[in-house]
Amino acid sequence: MLPRVEHELHHRRRSRNVGLLVVLLAFVALVFGLSVVKITQGDMMEGFDHQPRASVLPHDPNPPARTAPVAAPGTPGAEQGVGTSPGGTP
Fold it and tell me: Does 28 score more than 80 pLDDT?
């Protein structure tokens, strides 16, 4: 059997492929490392969802006395008089 002779082009191609493999593995390791750090950091992560964040709002020293929900006009609860007045009595 004859020994297999490898062409110089194949050798260059293989070294470029190995280089690309190293770059891709480094990128995957970087993304994985950043993900692990972000998850294990322990801070409260809040996304941008177009709503005010409660953690950023100032603390209200005098919260409203009524915390029960009020029935919206036109709903069955409003027609029955359930929680429609601000004083808490129907």
Answer: yes
pLDDT digits (tens, 9 = 90+) for 29-87: 999 999 998 888 866 666 666 777 777 778 888 877 766 777 788 888 777 765 545 55
Residue 47 DSSP one-character state: -
Distance CA 90, CA 70 (A): 10
Length of the chain: 90
Beta carbons of 78 and 70 less than 8 angstroms apart: no
Residue 5 CA to residue 22 CA, distance in Å, equals 26
Number of domains in the chain: 1
- Cα separation, 19 vs 12, in Å, equals 11
CB 83 within 8 A of CB 70: yes
81 is a domain residue: no
